[in-house]
Design a protein that fits this description.
Pathway: Amino-acid biosynthesis; L-arginine biosynthesis; L-arginine from L-ornithine and carbamoyl phosphate: step 3/3. By secondary structure, the protein is mainly alpha-helical. The protein has three domains: 82 residues, Fumarase C, Chain B, domain 1, CATH 1.10.275; 252 residues, Fumarase/aspartase (Central domain) (Fumarase C, Chain A, domain 2, Up-down Bundle), CATH 1.20.200.10; 32 residues, no CATH class. The protein is built from 16 helices and six strands. A two-stranded antiparallel ribbon has the order 1-2. Strands 3-6 form a two-stranded antiparallel ribbon. Helix 10 runs antiparallel to helix 11. The longest helix has 37 residues. The chain is elongated, with a radius of gyration of 28 Å.
Amino acid sequence: MSRPLWAKDLPLDEELHRFTVGADPETDLHLLASDAAGSAAHARMLGETGFLAEAEARALVGALAGLRQEALRGELVILPEEEDGHTALEHALERRLGETGRRIHLARSRNDQVATALRLHMRDRALDLGAAMHAAARAFLDLAEREEATPLPGFTHLRKAMPATWGMWAAAFAEGLLEELEALPALWGRLDRCPLGAAAGFGAPVAVDRGLSASLLGFSRVQNSPMDVMNSRGRYEQALAAWVVSAAGTLEKALWDLNLYSTEAFGFVALPDAFTTGSSLMPQKRNPDALELARARCRELRGLAGLLGHLAGGLPSSYHRDHQLLKAPFVELLDKGEELFRITSRLLPGLKVDREACAGAITQELHAAARACRLAAEGQPFRDAYGQVAREIQDGTFRPESAVPVRLGLERTAESLASSASWIKERRAFLKTTYEQLFAWGAQ
């Protein structure tokens, strides 16, 4: 059996060992590339500050560059007998570099190592999620532009209320997701502080250069308090999860509506065949499984976010092994959130709106508010106008009047979405350059 990084030649209960390792060998596969980048920054810092010979530090960075690429390609594995990704990386360095590989952990703890890997992973995944949200928002906007004037009843309490349009409906969800995208830079700002160098939560025992480590990884600042680094386990995960869950809550309403509007009872829209499935018994059935599962996914994400809150809460300060259990639901939440936004962006372009059915559903009484407002605008007190229109509907003398068309401002939404896309693209380019410069040092 591979020796744990913390081994002290004391007895180890095998069942207890399996219990403490848990899902880490699987979960940490998602973090290996980020862990390799954080380790490279640590090794380079040790070399530039004289704690390691420069040649050894460069060798470590070069080896970690190769390991990171293996991790990105899914080729780097964590063996069952290895506890976690940290062990797998260190063992891989030992196999490649011998004694030099055993020097990487100077002035570092697995506590700040995992905090750094998670922070780097969060930055990357926030951009991935932002891109997926943007694709969904753009798909809603495309639908709004395509069906801008197509009538659609507006509902309150699931009862017809006032005339609306498909353009108004789709634009609402484009703008809801745009609001989440506009929150992304602030969320990025929370993540933009480097935990590396906090060691076990009380600072490194030697005078490492935390500012250099932060700069090498593209952080604008250090997370100064080493104790806060440990206290923040779960805090950043919950912040990112809350953002994903909020955006999913916007999607949930659209998914619900499309399920409803595509039923035979409404018939406003037909789903693309590729996003429906059949019944195992009834030959005529086409079921909206993709919509229903996506709708359920929104609730699943809320459940995972709630689990993060329960796991992170109720603890005193500093590090506790409880934090290990945060990783699996957090990684799952990010992956499933991204999948939700991507499947939505693929579904929307295939929707087929039945314009005739939608126009036929705009019955006369939906224009009641427009007539009451016109009477009030001509000088009648609104409550009197309201009562008059109610009586007209009851006695059959009501004659509908069209409301002033709502200006959707789709051009402004498109401009804002383009701005968000540019920000994501710039951040991606920044991270790409950061990692290239970090690992280039090891190739010299």
